[in-house]
Each structure stands twice: as structure tokens, then as C-alpha cells.
Amino acid sequence: MSNIKDIFASMVFNDAVMREKLPKETYKSLIKTIEDGKELDISLANVVANAMKDWAIEKGATHFTHWFQPMTGVTAEKHDSFITPVSNCDVIMEFSGKELVKGEPDASSFPSGGLRATFEARGYTAWDPTSYAFIKDDTLCIPTAFCSFGGEALDKKTPLLRSMEAVSRQAIRVLRLFGNKTKKVVSTVGAEQEYFLVDKELFEKRKDLVITGRTLFGAKPPKGQEMDDHYFGSIKPRVKAFMAELDEELWKLGVLAKTEHNEAAPAQHELAPIFGTTNLATDHNQLTMETMKKIASRHGLVCLLHEKPFAGVNGSGKHNNWAIATKEGVNLLEPGETPSENAQFLLFLCAVIAAVDDYQDLLRVSVASAGNDHRLGANEAPPAIISMFLGDELTAILDSIENGTPYDVHKQSVMEIGADVLPKFAKDATDRNRTSPFAFTGNKFEFRSLGASHSVSGPNLTLNTIVAEELSRIADKLEAAVEMGEDFNKSVGALIRDIYRQHKRIIFNGNNYSDEWIEEAERRGLLNLRTTPDALPCFVARKNIEMYEKHKVFTETEMRSRDDIHMESYCKVMNIEALTMLDMAKKQILPAVMKYKGMLCKTAVSAASLGITNDVEVELINKISTLVGELNESIGALEFAIDESHKIADHYKLMFFIRDEIIPTMNSVRTAADGLEEMVGEDYWPFPTYDALLFNI
Ligand code: ADP
Ligand code: MG
Predict the structure, then answer these.
(1) Ligand 2 centre from 450 Cα, in Å?
(2) Of the ligands numbered here, which is closest to the C-alpha atom of 272?
(3) 318 CA to middle of ligand 2, Å?
(4) pLDDT of 21-32, one tens digit each?
(5) For burial by CB atoms within 10 Å, which of 401, 495, 669, 695 has the most?
(6) 511 in ligand 1 pocket by Cβ < 6 Å?
């Protein structure tokens, strides 16, 4: 392993490199432009581009690309070389400011939800100077936002950047009232990433894994995760080698990969980075997922980022740790030391409580996908019901504020906002409940409902905007109170009490996996949007459109286009899964079972001809025949349902047809096939089974 200090961020054109490579004046103007969020002047861009190119060539780069995050959820890039011909037989390496600042990829094949008809195919990409350029695979990658010529966002980055501005704007209004003069507030994210590693040769033998990323068939292995021996267990040499190389590659890209350990399921692992500014953390998480796949293949492995690669075994999620801090690095969700800091902390906390309650639907939508439907509510990940964990101590403090009763039995004192200091509560005590979708963990919130393959952009732009909305309501009220000359501390106290009283139904510190909670949540009137089709339609509810428009994160047109993309993507994923399942059942499973059954029949016949008893063979043949009958019938039903689904053009209707007709039929096909797997001889089964996949690295 090389020296970490030498390699860390060695492939990033970051602040230190800019300072070194750019003329002093250029550097200063660039930083100012970045801080003010202004457009880059072309003469400035030319100088920056040239320095970037020289630096990149020194590092072995030959190409550049605008690296962007279209609505597919993965990143996209189109490579151009630096080569420019200067005469018939000579070239120079060139990269202009224009090429740095703006690109025009032919983007007609990226999803736009009708925003950009194919005849006006061109969108444009624009450099996001708040995220540093980097070199990957000998290519200088320039992080960019992707928009239509009308200025509508076609990507996951643009609205995220807008949401960061929104939360900054509103948080500053509240901070001003407390005398804080900071110029900018940023949201911060640390995304813990779960993943599976499987052997590449075995992987390639399974069409379902290759095509859909998850197994559509597979009986439970004799040993699953019940022994709990994998979690934090010792890491196998092949996996260790993978992790070491992954860390090194990520460090070169400036990704702060920090913790690597085994997860609950066999063959499952996790990587946690050190948190950073949300847009950078989002870029870095995309890079992490991409790098994981690349490095795995160098080790004869495949990295599965699907939410549920194996039925009956824990799936993979992503824990999104989120907080907001001032530009100077003061975390606004950190309980403070002084009465005034605490009043401010409680107010920000209340903004998040209200946001999660008022916009449960949007948070749920932000983690909805076909893959994640297998995890949420399946006793391995939070339920589909969004609620919030605060811990007993913090809840008791808020209760006492609400009721004007003492929170501390010993002291018998009532907490007075702006006059008292919060009691110190142990951070650890807040972090024991692992079943909550949204948990306060001492100085940040951990949103645990994300699927492993998701871009963290959606959940974070949602969080930023809904918290911005609640902060704006708080600021409106407090500014008015100040204007009227009311006592500030009293106004803050009253506001905290009111918000808590109105929204405390969203707080639940118990076991979110229990059936009692589902009933209790219903009594409280909380939403339980079980599946993606249940959740997605909420996105374009009037209150949500108004909120996003108010904070200039989405226009209604952008929301409607995204709504369509989300629905279409669900339908496409499910259609591919259904077709793959049909193909495997008909062309692989049925023939294999027939072969095995044929062998049994032959054995039975020859036994009979020798006058030997063939009871066992006959019994097996009968059992298999029954199951094959069931399989065949379900295959017919699935074929019919798929044909019917292809007649439905409307994504909204199709989504529900899939939920109600296709998925139940797929489940029947699987039940019959998995039953057969348990009966048919191992050598006859057409693809590697769960125990081979899970215990073979
Ligand atoms: P656990 O596994 O117990 O959930 P970890 O320590 O593995 O916790 O991960 C916590 C994650 O939270 C890390 O990625 C860490 O960098 C991140 N984090 C810590 N503080 C903040 C913060 N203020 N804002 C956002 N993320 C944070
Ligand atoms: Mg975690």
C-alpha cells in the first residue's frame, strides 16, 4: 500500500491544486465566483481550463468528460480527447474555457419525462464548480449539472444544489434572530453503503443476477444469517484484498472512505465515509458505487448493489446521515452548552420534527423503488411508515416543555427556554434503536430507509427542502414577534411548544418492526405507503408542488416529468424481471426438472423390470409432477399477465396492474420453482444455488 498521505486526493483538482496551479488573481476570482454562486466569466474559465488540462495530462489523462447524473440514477459521461489538429500531421492537446463550462451531449436517450422531445434532443451540461474535477480512468471528469435548453433540470444534481440554497436561505433567517451572522448554511451527509460480493463465475451463470441484479429464484440455504457470525466477523482474504484496493482508489479520488466491515448477511459488507457537504457526498457516493463494481471485477468478484439480491437474507440499504451546519462548521443539530444555543438547537430540532411529519409522503417517495419494496417493512429495514426516533431523554425534555412540568425528578425544575441549559444526555443512549426509519443520533439524523442502489440526491433534496419550508414558517413567526416587540425567549419557547404539540405524533421510540406499531401508527394517522405504486402518486400532491415551487427547487413541470420518470422506471424494472423470470422458468428450470424426472422414471422402470421395489422413485416422481404442474400453470398465468400489461400504455395504471397482477403471479412461479429446487438433484439444477453464491468467497 502506498503512503495514504501521498495518494489522498492525488487525482482531484481541489483547492490546494488550484492554489498551486492557478495565477493568484485567477484563483481568487474563481473562489469568489464559487462562493457567490455566480456564472464563470469566459476569460477566467479559459485560464482555469488550461491549468486543469496541464495538470490532467501530467497525471496521464488523455480525455475529458462532463460527468453528470441523469435521472437513471447512475452517472453518465461522454469522452472527448484533448487532441486538436494543428496541421496535416500534428496535434496539440487543448481544452478551452468553453469546453470546461458548458457541454452539449446528445442527450435524447436519457429519461426526461416528456420535458425534452427527441427532436429537440440537446440538453446541456454546466460545470458545478462547488464539486472538484477529478481524474478517473485517464479521463478528466468535470462534475456538471444537466439541463434542457429551457433551463429545466434533467438530472439529480440541479435540484439538489437548489435545495441546498433553499435550506441555507431559511436557516440564515432563523440564525439572524439569534444574532448569528453567518453567510451560508450547508447540509452535510455521510452515506453508509451496504453491498454484497459474489463470485464472478457463479454470477455469470445466473441470468437473473446478470440481467436484474437480484435472484428471482432460490430456495433458502441451510444456513442463513441466523448464527449472526458474519456481522463484524473477520474479513476473508479475497474480500480484504478487494477492500484495500477499493480504499486506495477512493482515496485517490478524495473520497473519505473510513470504515469497512462485514454486515449482517453472509457475503454482505459495508463502507462508511467521513461526512461532507451534501453535493460532494452525493458525487462521492456515486463514485463509490461505481468504483466498487470496477474493483470487484479485478478480484474475480461482482459487487451487488441491489436492495434485495437474495430472498430470505437481509438486503442492502444505505444509511443517510444528515445534519446542517454553518459555513464555519458549527453543527446546528448539536445540543449547545449555553441557554441560547439550546433554544436555537431545540428550534432547529422542531423544524425537522415538523418537516418529517408534514412531509412523510415526500420522504417515503424519495426512497421508493421496485428494489426497495422487498426491504421496507420486511423486518430487516424500517417499515414503510415514516416516523422519528428521538430517544427517551430528548423526548422527555420536549414533553416537559410542552406540559410545563419538570423533566428531571431530582431537580423538580421546569426548563425555561433561553434561561436553562439542556441536561447532558449521553449520545450513546440515542443510538440504540436500529429499527427507526429516521433516528436522531446525538447531533445528526440518520435516514435509514434508502436502498443500496439509490442516488442519495433524492432523499437529501427532499430533506433540505422540507426543513427549509419549516424554517421559513418559524422565521415568519419569530420575525413578526420581534417586530411586535414581544419577548424573544418567550416567543421561541411558545413556538417550540406549539410545534411539538402539533407534530409529536411522528415521534416513536419503540420497536418499529412490531405489528403493534403498525396499528399504533394508523391510530396516530400516519401514512403507511407500503409499495412504490402506493407512494409515488403523493409526489405531485398540491401541497408538495406548492412547497417545491416556493423554494425554487422544482417547477411543477419538472415535478410532473419526474413523476412520470419514477413510474416508468418502476414499470420497466418490473417488466424486465417478469420477462427474465419467464425465460428462466421455461428454458432452464422446466427442462432441468424434466431431465431429472426422466432419470427417476427410467430408474423406476428398470427397478420394476428387475422385480425390485420402486416406491421411493414413484413417490418422488409424483411429488415432482405435482409441483411441475403448479409451475407450469403459474408460468401460463405470468405469460398472460405480461401480455395484458403490454396493452397498458399509461404508467400510472400499469404500475397498479403490476402490483396487483404481475407480482402475485411472479410469487407463485417462484414458490413452485423453489420447491422443485429442494427436490431436484444438485447436478441437475441449471444454475448455482444460494449456498454456492453466499458461501463461496
Ligand atoms: P453507525 O454505523 O453507528 O450508523 P457510523 O459511525 O458507521 O455509524 O457512521 C456514521 C456516519 O455519519 C459516518 O459516515 C459519519 O461521517 C456521518 N456523520 C457524522 N457526523 C455527521 C454530520 N454532522 N453530518 C452528516 N453526517 C455525519
Ligand atoms: Mg448507520
Answers:
(1) 11
(2) 1
(3) 8
(4) 999 999 999 998
(5) 669
(6) no
User: What average pLDDT does the segment 518-533 reach?
Assistant: 97
The residue extents of the domains of the chain are 4-155, 163-554, 569-695
Calculated CA dihedral for residues 429, 434, 439, 444, nearest 10 degrees: 70
Q: What is the best residue among 255, 432, 444 to mutate for testing ligand 1's pocket, by most ligand atoms within 8 Å of CB?
A: 444
**What is the Å distance from ligand 1's center to 19 Cα?**
30
Sign of CA dihedral 494, 495, 498, 503: negative
What confidence score (pLDDT) does residue 697 get? 76
**In CATH, 569-695 is 1.20.120.1560:** yes
Q: Name the residue of 275, 427, 447 to mutate for ligand 1: max ligand atoms within 8 A of Cβ.
A: 275
For ligand 1, say whether the CB of 276 is within 6 Å of any of its atoms.
no
Phi then psi dihedrals of residue 604, to 5 deg: -60, -45
Which residue's CA is the nearest one to ligand 1's atom 6? 272
- Among the listed residues 580, 569, 592, the one whose alpha carbon sits nearest the alpha carbon of residue 682: 592
Ligand nearest to C-alpha 317: 2
Task: Give me the CATH code for the 163-554 domain, please.
Answer: 3.30.590.10
**Is residue 190 lining ligand 1, measured as CB closer than 6 Å?**
yes
Antiparallel, parallel or unpaired: β 317-326 and 445-451: antiparallel
Q: How far is the CA of 190 from the centre of ligand 1 (A)?
A: 5
447 lines ligand 1 (CB under 6 A): no
Q: Is the pLDDT of residue 245 over 70?
A: yes
pLDDT at 428: 53
The answer to whether the CB of 323 is under 6 A from ligand 1 is: yes
What local confidence, expressed as pLDDT, does residue 567 receive?
97
Query: Which residues touch 335 (CB under 8 Å, ≥6 apart)?
Result: 341, 342, 345, 422, 425, 443
Q: Tell me, yes or no, if the two domains 4-155 and 569-695 fold the same way.
A: no
Tell me, using a 6 A CB cutoff, whether residue 616 lines ligand 1. no
Amino acid 118: pLDDT: 44
- Cα distance between residue 396 and residue 400, in whole Å: 6
**Backbone φ, ψ for residue 91 (5° rounding):** -130, 155
Q: Is 102 helix (H, G, I), strand (E, B) or coil?
A: strand
pLDDT of residue 124: 87
CATH superfamily of 4-155: Glutamine synthetase, N-terminal domain (3.10.20.70)
Q: Is the pLDDT confidence value at 578 over 70?
A: yes
DSSP state of 655: H
Ligand 1 atom at shortest distance from the alpha carbon of 319: 4
CB 475 within 8 A of CB 177: yes
Q: Which helix (H) or strand (E) holds 628?
A: helix 615-645
493 CB near ligand 1 (under 6 Å): no
Q: Report the C-alpha gap between 254 and 489 in whole angstroms.
A: 44
Take atom 23 of ligand 1 and give the residue whose Cα is closest. 323
Residue nearest to atom 19 of ligand 1 (CA): 275
Q: Counting atoms of ligand 1 from 1, which one is nearest the CA of 431? A: 3
Q: Which residues pair with 136 in a beta bridge?
A: 139
Listed residue (687, 645, 696) closest to 666, CA to CA: 645
CB atoms within 10 A of CB 15: 14
Q: 205-244: per-residue pLDDT in tens?
A: 999 999 999 999 999 877 666 555 555 566 788 899 999 9
Q: Which three cell numbers stand for residue 148?
A: 434542457
Give the residue-averaged pLDDT of 328-332. 96
Q: Say how far apart CA 267 and CA 230 lie, in whole Å.
A: 8
Distance separating the N- and C-terminal Cα atoms of the chain: 23
184-193, 279-288, 390-399, 539-548: least confidently modelled range: 390-399
For 363-372, write each residue's pLDDT tens digit. Answer: 999 999 999 9
On whether the pTM is more than 0.70, the answer is yes
Closest CA to 457 of 153, 157, 76: 157
